[in-house]
């Protein structure tokens, strides 16, 4: 595995005015450009980490899944990555996914090790016992007829109560739908107010029980903007949003994956990974942040 660390990025450049000087906020720890010679590597859209942030599972939006280990520096930023297992996802019959079925976007690991993956072209929520196992598919979620092509279940997170939360990238009216699945049943949907052109693209529940949501915007000819919000959570949905990070257009690449973990000193850490769209003008970028209260 080849990789190069990119440090020295000025935090004041990376953070928008809503984050600088605010509390709480996410402080930049380091960046890393992840390179691999495999033809299937790229387009990373979902990330899960072990509690210590060292072991990873990541999926691409072309139905590939990779697992392995990060090496982190003394500050806790990723310095290198080793892929130990790489394979194509298969359908219920054990055949590699193909056609519209390949658009894997959201990733979550359940407490029993089950791998949950959401797909946003052929809208569905799937489960696998391990990366090589055939998929089983949940019944169609509520509201699926209203979802746009390629703007459906983009972000997926496993909540502390065992439910899965999946966020639609596209808006339904002036809101994003949050569909929840638990014990084989779809629960009543929740809603997230849309703000401008920000779209949910990644989500995770932290060790503190709160919801962390990665959103993306895009300015033509300038580049991507990203922000991370933190919410309190109840049965009525997410509340009390706090903007931890808001990047200026073009500073970072196309972040689509977010994982939350806790370091040895008890601080909340955020690891973000970008989708390079398999384009040479983009890159797979890993950024580590520390939440400052």
Automatic annotation (TrEMBL):
Keyword Signal annotated: yes
The reply on keyword Signal is: yes
Q: Name one Pfam family in it.
A: Phytase-like
In the record, which residues are listed under signal peptide? 1-22
Q: Where is the Phytase-like domain?
A: 40-278
The protein's UniProt keywords, in alphabetical order, are: Signal
What the entry lists under SUPFAM superfamilies is as follows: NHL repeat
What superkingdom heads the lineage? Bacteria
Per its UniProt record, what InterPro entries does this chain match?
A: Phytase-like_dom, UCP031900
Name this protein carries in UniProt: Esterase-like activity of phytase family protein
Which species is the source of this protein? Answer: Albidovulum sediminis
């Amino acid at each position: 595995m080849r990789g190069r660390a990119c440090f020295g990025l000025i935090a004041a450049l990376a953070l928008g005015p809503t984050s600088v000087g605010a509390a709480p906020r996410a402080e930049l720890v380091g960046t890393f450009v992840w390179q691999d010679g495999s033809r299937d590597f790229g387009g990373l859209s979902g990330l899960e980490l072990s509690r210590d942030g060292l072991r990873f599972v990541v999926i691409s939006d072309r139905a590939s899944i990779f697992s392995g280990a990060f090496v982190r520096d003394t500050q806790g930023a990723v310095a290198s990555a080793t892929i130990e297992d790489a394979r194509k996802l298969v359908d219920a019959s054990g055949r590699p996914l193909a056609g519209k079925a390949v658009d894997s976007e959201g990733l979550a690991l359940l407490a029993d090790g089950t791998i949950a993956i959401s797909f946003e072209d052929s809208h569905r929520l799937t489960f696998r016992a391990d990366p090589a196992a055939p998929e089983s598919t949940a019944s169609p979620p509520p509201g699926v007829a209203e979802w746009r092509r390629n703007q459906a279940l983009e972000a997926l997170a496993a909540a502390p109560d065992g439910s899965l939360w999946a966020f639609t990238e596209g808006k339904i009216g002036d809101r994003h739908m949050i569909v929840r699945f638990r014990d084989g049943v779809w629960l009543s949907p929740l809603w997230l107010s849309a703000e401008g052109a920000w779209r949910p693209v990644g989500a995770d529940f932290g060790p503190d029980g709160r919801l962390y949501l990665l959103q993306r915007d895009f300015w033509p000819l300038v580049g991507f903007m990203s922000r991370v919000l933190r919410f309190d959570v109840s049965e009525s949905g997410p509340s009390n949003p706090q903007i931890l990070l808001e990047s200026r257009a073009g500073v970072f690449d196309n972040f689509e994956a977010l994982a939350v973990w806790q370091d040895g000193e008890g601080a909340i850490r955020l690891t973000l990974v970008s989708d390079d769209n398999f384009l040479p003008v983009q890159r797979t970028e890993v950024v580590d942040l520390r939440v400052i209260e």
